[in-house]
Amino acid sequence: MPDIRDAPTAVAVVGPDGMVSGWSEGGRLLLGWTAEDTVGRPVTDLLVDPPPPGVPESHSVGPTEFTPLRHRDGSTVDAVVTAQPLSGPDGRALGHVVTFQRWGRRPVIADRAFEQCPFALGVYDPDLRFLWINASSGRVIAHSEEQVLGRKYREVLPEFDRTLFPERDDKPYTDKLAEVARTGEPARLITVFQPRGSDYANAWATSIWPVRDGEGRVRGVANWGFDMSAEYWARQRLLMLNEASGGIGRTLDVIGTAQELARTPVPGFVDLVSVDLFDEVLRGEEPPSVSAFTPGETIRLSRAAQHSTKEDADRAPGPTTPVTHAPGSVAGRCMATGRSTVELAAAPGQGGEWAFGPGLAADPAHWPPGNPVIDESLVSVGLTGRITVPLRARGALLGVVAFCRMDRPEAFTADDLILAEELTAKAAVAIDNARRYSRERTTALTLQRSLLPQGLPNQESVDVASRYLPGGTGAEVGGDWFDVIPLSGARVALVVGDVVGHGLHASASMGRLRTAVRTLADVDLPPDELLTHLDDLVLHLASDLRPGNHFHPTGESGATCLYTVYDPVSRRLTLASAGHPLPLIIRPDGTRVPVAAQPGPPLGIGGLPFEATELELPEGSLLALYTDGLVESRERDADQGLTQLQQVLNHSVTSLEALCDTVMDTLLSDRRTDDAALLLARTHGLDPDHVADCDVEPDPAQVPLARKFAVDQVDAWGLEEASFVTELVVSELVTNAIRYGEPPIRLRLIRDAVLICEVSDASNTAPHLRRARVFDEGGRGLLLVAQLTQGWGTRHTTNGKTIWCAQTLSQPEPH
């Protein structure tokens, strides 16, 4: 019996009464029934299902519909039935001409076209049983059509029930086929799988669609696909390069960038990546020259990063683990020649499982000279291939990178080498940028730390503690600074400032400002006058730094400064601000002292005044001077940070040092981008019994009385060893005030860590040392004072000036 698939179309003539009056030979070939069997019988005898109730037998089949037919042997034949009306010459209806064509029958030319199609084609019933595949599909699944017809898809291809890349959350291909059969919605997708007999994962562009009958019911599923491996893997390389562009070099950290390079190609490209760098690169120094290596010398590097699909391999060598490469090794040759090397465990086309697969035949790249190198010893160390690339940037050799495959059997292609070199080149520039930044940051930080106070000076007015933290690794060193400057009269100046900008220039600018503030503080200017002079100085420095063209570096012109002076005798704090945040002051009872002051403009503006504000503080008050990097961040504004700072300062802490640590830990995050400086001070008041003063009439006869007052007071304090020097300096200072000054004249003695003697008058004329000739009667007073004491000076007041000197006490009495 001929194959039913080759049967011609069956034709039957059906009368108005539904009886068959004619039957073609094609009907016998299609259904096995002869003319004798069918003529004179109802046409409904050929149907598997009875016609719906109420439908006349002569109309039991529609004009064109899908209808199951009964074969003579009892089987069912799915067919498409078409009925055309038949009329006589007079127009009288004579019945219908009914044609039966097997479902799925195609013309011969169509059979040949689909069979020879280079795409893989297949048709399946709703239960995913094979109905037909072409030759290309058979080659892909390694089965002939006869082997799969009638079998379920999952039985023939169980590997398609899993996804090749679980990390992508792909749905198995078999599930997609079943989904289309269930929903009737077509699908288009790219499927990655390993064809039978191949060690390579090929990528296929696939389309799946439902096959419907005339009523729109899904009677099957069809699919087609073509191998697009070369295009797909090229796209994956581009995606990896795009990922590398955004994922490598995100931080200006050498080790962090090396780790980003190691993680990016795993597992999509290779199974293991190691990055070895010269120690000089890790330290931010210039890498050694390749010409400096002598023949036969072992190259010593440090493993800055390693990443693998196996977690244990990541833990084995920690960052900066020393590694060595012999001159004759692959890594040594790569670094010496500057050329990459590809090693394969077996030659292409040889060695069975290591051979190139057919899906990579369209790879357009070509191997450079000397590649690939066949090294069978790779198998002994668990590798199927390795690409070694020298890490070079701007003509400098930074180290070497190894890309290794362990679990995947496919050999590297020439395009893989291009990808490895591109990844390495991107990372090399980022690592070199991080190295250069690390060098500048280290230099700036070293400079800044050398300019900041190495230790706070000893003084009795306040207890102080300080902290400075540079910005995180993603930012350069800024220009934050602070200082504690002892002043005359047991007073102390607390200073904090900030130079806008980062890097070496900001550090140098900070150093200039700190030096200028110390110089002006020695003159003992009030805070507002000091900031005015500092503002003028910044203007001059900015003009000196400005080059001839438009572009000039930003520096002191963006600086702010807060200058405060605390007097333990009066317990008053005087402050002035040049664009800097005002201090936070907490009373001993924990309440906040309001600071009714208005910060002036930043330094370098010029022409605008600064205002000084005085506050009287209870003994034991806590002052917090800070830069904006402490209270401001991306997560909060300055007001929120100030509220949080106050809450931390209200906590009872045993020492200022511990309180500083608590503040920095609480307010600063690891993601900070700005420097932060903090200066804490707890005030002390000087005991009134340690201060003595008296008015002096402008009469030379009052000098002995002033001497006696000073000696009696020093003796009363138990400082008899200082009586002689005190008597001499009081005599000289009071005599000068009477002779050259203006009334009123006042003498004051202060017993603190040192013994301070002050003489004030209403004259603004400041004395100065001068060389006295042999026969001169004057000019030796201040020289004597300078020789007998450990310090002296002049400070101007609103009502004149004060001349002071200080003696060091052998055993100063603590508070």
Structure characterization notes:
With 815 residues, this protein is an alpha+beta fold. The chain is built from 21 helices and 31 strands. The strands form 6 sheets. A 7-stranded mixed beta sheet has the order 13-12-11-17-16-14-15, with helices on both faces. It has a 5-stranded antiparallel beta sheet with strand order 2-1-5-4-3. Strands 7-6-10-9-8 form a 5-stranded antiparallel beta sheet. Helix 9 (254-263) packs antiparallel against helix 13 (414-451). It is elongated. Mean pLDDT is 81; it is low at 1-5, 54-59, 313-318, 349-362, 549-556 and 771-778.
Give the averaged pLDDT, no decimals.
81
Any low-confidence stretches, pLDDT <50, length ≥5? 1-5, 54-59, 313-318, 349-362, 549-556, 771-778
Q: What is the subunit organization of this protein?
A: single chain
Cα-atom Rg, whole angstroms?
48 Å
Figure out the total of helices. 21
Strand content: 25-35%
Termini Cα gap: 123 Å
**Percent of residues in helical segments?**
25-40%
| Structure class | alpha+beta
Shape: elongated
Main β-sheet description: 7 strands, mixed
Major beta sheet, strand line-up: 13-12-11-17-16-14-15
Number of strands: 31
